[in-house]
Amino acid sequence: MRILLVEDDKDVAGFIAKGLREAGHVVEHADNGRDGLFLAASENFDAIILDRMLPGGVDGLRLLETLRSQDNHTPVLFLSALAQVDDRIRGLKAGGDDYLTKPFVFAELLARVEALTRRSRNEGPQTKLVVGDLEMDLLARNVRRAGQKIDLQPREFRLLEYMMRHAGQVVTRTMLLEGVWDYHFDPQTNVIDVHVSRLRQKVDKPFASAMIHTIRNAGYMLRAEGA
Amino acid sequence: MPAPPPALPRARRIGIASGHAGRLRWPRGLLRSAGLRFAGLYAALFGLSALALVLFLWWDTAALLDRQVDAAIRADAQGLNERWESGGLPALILTIRERLAENIDDDAIYMLVDNTGRRLAGNLDRWPPGITTDDDWYEMPIVRDRVRSLARVHNFALPGGFHLLVGRDVEARVKLRRILTDAMLWAVLVVAGLGGLGAFLVRSVLRGMLADISRTTAAIGAGDLTRRVRLSGRGDEFDRLAETINDMLERISRLMEGVRAVSNAIAHDLRTPITRARTRLEDALAHADAAADLRAAIERAEADLDGIVAVFQAILRIAEIEAGARRSAFSPFDLVPVLGDLAELYGAVAEERGLTFIFRSPAALMLFGDRDMIQQAVANLLDNALKFSPPQGEIRLLAESQGRIVRITVTDQGPGIPEAERARVTERFYRGESARTTPGSGLGLALALAVAQLHDGTLTLTDNAPGLAATLNLPGQED
């Protein structure tokens, strides 16, 4: 994946770039808004990681608004120290696809960036999700694994749907909380772990192999056996 | 008598000096005073209207008197003319004599002369000089019985060269006019005096009303945020102004309080975990030999930092809530699905821990507020309940409406909070005795309280015997 990183802090930028490259991505870096806008507008990227407060006269919001006005729909993840609810809303309204506040855990950033690109590739309504021998019919709202029907509660259904849409990618607890429950705060209890473990009881336990894997220090991943 | 402290006379001297300077500046200050401007305007308006009234009265009275005299003269002349026409000269002379005799007021003036100017009848000694034109009005000084007087007369020309002068002594009218003028001059003086007095009163009333406001705002400006403008209780414009100002001051002081609390929190409560993290790193740098030890130390420090970030975010979030900035995002919403989602999210956790979770609510509960905030507040209460529940305990999430109030109660069967501590646990960072050993930022209840207050509600903590019952009381949405 080709990722543009617009971030003025050298240490943070270096750390992110290193991590992304280790994960197998190609990273271009701009340390101010003007260069960032130039790069974003002139080259093709799969995703943009954008700081909000940038030197060079063009801040993150302006950069994104300019980009969107040019009909450029590259997915954008805001990475900002501005953490208030209103800041977040403003970022998403300006056309951002996701908003992560500093300080952040790299695994979270990586998971979210990878989720972004998947989201943009899969536009258009889908009626069926398939991962390995796991099938989800979004219209009839039923789930089968290896042809065997699995009964799920509505919330479990949405949890599994989210994980299937991001199959092969790490989904963090925060992503699940935001994506499935629409909660924007961190509970102090391991609520997500409990719900994933319940889902496992139904999706993995009756079968020979597990599809939902715990990724240490990051979150979960749903993937087909052998993938 | 003990000698006065040396500081006092000096202070007094300064006081006198500044008072003197103030007196020197007085006229300019006076000109700039809005109170004086209003008062001046008042006095000017009062004076002008009084003057207009007086002038109108004066002219009206004078003109009325003039008209009366003229009418009397005309009526008199009319009568005499009739006599002349019916009885000729002798009848006229007789009538004049009769009328003079009957004139009790002694103000009538008659003079009948023939064509040579000889006097035939009347009470004037001689034909007054200057009266030459026939049928005309004259106002002239006369001497009657050796008394100088003023008369208004009309000269009628009769056939045969006779001339008749009919008039009235108007000295009384002049006297009356003079009295009237005098009275009016006095009235102008009185009006000026009253106007000045009124102006002074207006000015001092205005000043008194504004003085408290300016004193209060000056004190606030100087840093005393506890001062408030006094209300007169009359509910007038000044009271309303004072109320607005007080509301504003209340808000400012709350914001200041928030800023102070946040900086205190940062100073005191973030320092501890930061110190801990730093100590661990320093210790590892100095004493860890194996790479594994270093790695472990770094991981612990990372966890410490995550904890610090969590506290920090909670502080900022509470500050954001307390600033009330989110009030613009308020909207009506049904609380029941929100609580249902939370019950589902936390119910699973409770179940896994072997706890009983009970959720009860009516079919719908409308609230006007910030959905996310209330969600988070209830989640915090549930977090606490889970954290402190003993094995096989019971957690309840109850929602009910009582009149206009919507109550959301979370109960547990944990150690509870001793009554003496209850008021303090909602303070930021306060952690009860029994909570010392459990993880947490200590900000959960503080945030719930801030959310409740943002919605003009309260957070009450009561004994669940055993355990704690935390209740959010929020004003419900009117239909």
Please explain how this structure is put together:
The complex is a heterodimer of chains A (about 230) and B (about 475). In chain A, α2 (about 35-40) packs parallel to α3 (about 60-70). Helix content of chain A is about 40%, strand content about 20%. By secondary structure, chain A is of the alpha/beta class. Chain A folds into 2 domains: about 1-120, 3-Layer(aba) Sandwich (Rossmann fold), CATH 3.40.50; about 130-220, Arc Repressor Mutant, subunit A, CATH 1.10.10.10. With about 475 residues, chain B is α+β, with helices and mostly antiparallel strands. In chain B, the strands form 3 sheets. Chain B has a 5-stranded antiparallel beta sheet with strand order 2-1-5-4-3. A 5-stranded mixed beta sheet of chain B has the order 7-9-10-12-11. Mean pLDDT of chain B is about 80; it is low at about 1-25 and about 435-440. The interface of A and B includes residues 84, 181 and 195 of A.
Keywords:
heterodimer; A: 227 residues; alpha/beta; Rossmann fold; Arc Repressor Mutant, subunit A; 2 domains; 5-stranded parallel beta sheet; 4-stranded antiparallel beta sheet; 40% helix; B: 479 residues; alpha+beta; Beta-Lactamase; Heat Shock Protein 90; 3 domains; 5-stranded antiparallel beta sheet; 5-stranded mixed beta sheet; 9 helices; 59% helix; disordered N terminus
How is the topology of this model organized?
The complex is a heterodimer of chains A (227) and B (479).
Chain A: E1 2-6, H1 10-22, E2 26-30, H2 33-42, E3 47-51, H3 60-69, E4 76-80, H4 85-93, E5 98-101, H5 106-121, E6 128-131, E7 134-137, E8 142-145, E9 148-150, H6 154-165, E10 170-172, H7 173-180, H8 191-203, E11 212-215, E12 219-222
Parallel strand pairs in A: 1-2, 1-3, 3-4, 4-5
Antiparallel strand pairs in A: 6-7, 7-8, 8-9, 10-12, 11-12
Chain B: H1 7-32, H2 34-102, E1 108-113, E2 119-122, E3 136-144, E4 147-157, E5 163-169, H3 171-221, H4 237-287, H5 291-322, E6 331-334, H6 335-352, E7 356-360, E8 366-369, H7 371-388, E9 394-402, E10 405-411, H8 419-425, H9 444-454, E11 458-463, E12 468-475
Parallel strand pairs in B: 7-9
Antiparallel strand pairs in B: 1-2, 1-5, 3-4, 4-5, 6-8, 9-10, 10-12, 11-12
Helix pairs in contact in B: 2-3, 3-4, 4-5, 5-9, 6-7, 7-9
